[in-house]
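Deliverable D5.2: sample structural annotation.
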Amino acid sequence: MNTPTHRLARLVAASLLVTAAACGDDGGGATTDTTGGDTGSADVLADVVADTTAATDTTAATDTSPADTAPDTAEPADPIVAADETWTWVGFDDAFCDDGSTTGIGVNLNPDSDDVIVYLEGGGACWSTLTCLVLNTAAHGPFGQTQFDAVNGHFADLFDRANADNPFRDWNFVYVPYCTGDLHGGNNVATYNDQPYHHVGHQNVLTYLRRLEATFPTVDQFVLTGASAGGYGVLFNYHWFRTQLDPATSGFIDDSGPPLVGDGVDPAIRSSWEAAWLPAATIEPYCGTDCDDDLSLVITKLSELYPDDRMSLLSSLRDETIRSYLGRSPEQFEGDVRALYAQRIEPTSNVRAFYVTGQTHTMVGDIAAFAGLAEFIADQVSGDAGWSSVIPPAQ
């Protein structure tokens, strides 16, 4: 029997596995990257989103879109001041986690460099009472000084100053935590069971950008990267970083956040995201309404808007975490990511993909574990003319 009630019971059981997974490190950055679903059990999430959300979700949208609540740029922001090449927590009174607690960013500054890399942390996603409060499929707040101190020193390999082969070793580092459940793309305070839930990841980004712009008035090279939920956050927010910081050269590395073409993301899930997060306010200003129904078109639009920028997607062909969230079988997901490459990435002149076989999730936390990845990233950042996609042949 496979009724909604039975599927919901399996989801509750799966939540125990999700919670256990939150105690580990999936290799995609700081050790708090729970990714909210590093188990195969999460694939039933997509199976019940349509027939249980209405019964369990009391979402009330409070639109906090950029047009209404973007920081007042007429008031100059103060630059961030921190010790050289030392991780420092910077709290913000106007950036929030899901529970309404304030959050911030970590910085590691090199005053001798005009290059900046920003990393968006991962940690799952949620969009309803069931997913946010019962299954807890996303990382929760608070995330402040205490939580930052706990993960400091366990960041992605891209932040390794001791590695002579790391192309970012002398750059300025910015770490953006994740505690809003919305792939860093939200503009909404939802209500679940009379409890406010701040899906304000994109609003937080806009808040941080004011200080970052003041801190880095001149940016030579810029890279936005992130893993899992943070990888999707790269797609949502690259345009906003790009326009605000106005770097001389720029690019992004989306680690394990593949925007599958069309109904590779089930329409019911897309509708749930839109109702809970209001992400259209994040992407429509530069992508139009087409991207509301097909997030993969963000790649096409960003490539067209910034033809000189170098952009990349890293993914395994059968990523267990992402396919579980989206309710795709291993074979379906491999077809999805190959279609993404063929239809959106390969036709561009400035976007590349690095795919690996298997079902691993995230790569930038352990670059050496993936043959050729260090060279791929170095070629992307250096502007090497030979930079090319790495796609395993179909079996």
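Annotation notes: The first helix runs from residue 4 to 21. The CA atoms of residues 222 and 250 lie 5 Å apart.
The annotation will be released with the project's public dataset once the embargo ends.
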